[in-house]
Amino acid sequence: MSTAAAGRRTWRRKLAIAVASLVAFFALAEVGLRLAGYPRVGGMRWIADDELQQLPAPFQDAIRGDDEPGREPIRVRINSHSLRGEDFPSAKPAGEKRVLVVGDSLTFGAGVDEDEAFPARLEQALAAAGAPARVVNAGVNGWACWHYRRWLEARGFALAPDALVVAVFFGNDMEGPRLLPRVGPAWLENALERTATFDWLLALYRERLWKQVRAWRQGVSVAEVEAELAAYTGGAENARSAEQQLEIWRAQAFPQLEALRDEAQARGLPLLVALIPTYVACKAPATPRPYRLWREALGELGLDCVDLEPLLRPSGDGAWLSWDHGHLNAQGCADVGAALAKEVLARGWLR
């Protein structure tokens, strides 16, 4: 046997040993982590989407552990439309009224059960008032105005709504699309997420490492990344001036809302924009100037807006999740749902 052939055989043997060792390591890790309780409860599956970047995978019925301390884990059902809630036909049955509520994780109901999210509360309030309608919860975690427009154009308008509510959160809906920190494409996470090893590695990355990675990429400190995140999720004041924020909104979000306004008008579809303040805005002694500018600027676009700050401000901490001030709790959702029902009924959209 030549020296070259012997070398190739040795190389292949070493490679086989390395691969076998790696497989054995992950097999042992998988067994050990499963004994330790992984994969943990929770974890919505996502699918890649050409129009919207990503969507919840349809036909899920999952239990998530991101509820308030002391409560049972919440149930999350994702229907055939990749939206939260029970399934429904795309074609609207005769006599049915439909209201689409488009938004982000506040609309989705992060931290509350399906029937506690404010679109469900809106449906309940309409039924109690003698104006039954199917209220579609079209809220998706991480969405912004960019997504609202694209989802409606690609999917939402085809559902033949009788009224449209766009719930815009002051914390982060007015900027361009930002995805949650991911370690790979959605299809790869979908394929791997059922393994305990991947679940553990993903938790390690998201809970401990991604801030360091982001800081390294941006050339800033971890503290600056945390401050940016707190402002983005509505849990702290933004370091930008009110004028700087307004310019960003005008460039990134206002064109999306103007396009939605024009599209709704062309279809004869009533549109209500619900303005949802941040926890910080509600806790301030007076309405913050950036929020006032935001509210006034949206009004100048000719949008029919309802400001929910006067509703949520008196509630203080009572309207927000105790562990996540970026999202409403069950009481806050109930208050918002009831308020939106009054607005929809007052406009006579479901007669």
Structure description:
The protein is α/β, with parallel strands linked by helices. Among the domains are: 1-36; 91-178 and 235-346, Rossmann fold (3-Layer(aba) Sandwich), CATH 3.40.50. It contains 13 helices and 11 strands. The chain has helices at 3-35, 105-108, 118-128, 145-156, 186-192, 196-218, 222-232, 242-252, 254-267, 279-283, 289-300, 309-312, 330-346; strands at 46-49, 53-56, 60-64, 74-78, 98-103, 134-139, 163-169, 271-276, 305-307, 320-321, 324-328. A 5-stranded parallel beta sheet has the order 6-5-7-8-9, sandwiched between helices. Strands 1-2 form a two-stranded antiparallel sheet. Strands 3-4 form a two-stranded antiparallel ribbon. A hairpin with a 2-residue loop joins β10 and β11 (324-328). α4 packs parallel to α9, α6 crosses α7 and α8 packs parallel to α11.
Task: Give a short synopsis of this structure.
The protein is of the alpha/beta class and 351 residues long. It is built from 13 helices and eleven strands.
User: Which fold name is given in CATH as the topology of the domain at 91-178 and 235-346?
Assistant: Rossmann fold
How many helices? The count is 13
Identify the overall geometry.
Answer: globular
User: Which H/E pattern describes the elements?
Assistant: HEEEEEHHEHEHHHHHEHHEHEEH
Q: Note the beta-strand portion.
A: 15-25%
Q: Spans of 5+ residues with little confidence (pLDDT < 50)?
A: none
User: How many distinct beta strands?
Assistant: 11
Mean pLDDT across all amino acids? 86
